[in-house]
Amino acid sequence: MRVKKVVIALLGFFIIAPLWAGEAEIEKGKNLIYTRTKGNCISCHMIPGGSLPGNFAPPLVQMKARYPDPDDLRKQIFDARIKNPQTIMPPFGAHKMLSEDEIDWLVEYLYTL
């Protein structure tokens, strides 16, 4: 009986932990999206809630539908040249413009759009 309680407690932790951990990551990603000195996504993309957005890159909406696998979205942010060598999107990860954590935070936030 004791083992069963421990297993239930551990499962509860792993189910709940991403919920509280994700909030901070989502907020950090949101800050990067709108920060003109770091991610600067808004200079090219229309983003809900953003002011003075760019209009020559795809709007950042319905991201879960467009990228059902978060790893694909992460790869796109890391280096969009892999899928499209002619892209004008900066290779944020490959050129170390954003850290690995910052790219993860962007993915977390974009998945809320």
pLDDT averaged residue by residue: 83
Envelope shape:
globular
What is the CATH class name? Mainly Alpha
Determine the number of helices (DSSP H or I, runs of at least 4 residues): 4
Under CATH, the topology is which?
Cytochrome Bc1 Complex, Chain D, domain 2
Bin the strand percentage: under 5%
Descriptive account of the structure:
The protein has helices spanning 2-34, 63-66, 70-78, 100-110. The protein has 4 helices and no strands. By secondary structure, it is mainly α. It has a single domain (2-110), classed as Cytochrome Bc1 Complex, Chain D, domain 2, CATH 1.10.760.10.
Any key phrases for this structure?
Cytochrome Bc1 Complex, Chain D, domain 2; 113 residues; mainly alpha; globular
Task: Offer a concise description of the structure.
With 113 residues, the chain is an all-alpha fold. It has four helices and no strands.
Secondary structure topology:
Elements: H1 2-34, H2 63-66, H3 70-78, H4 100-110
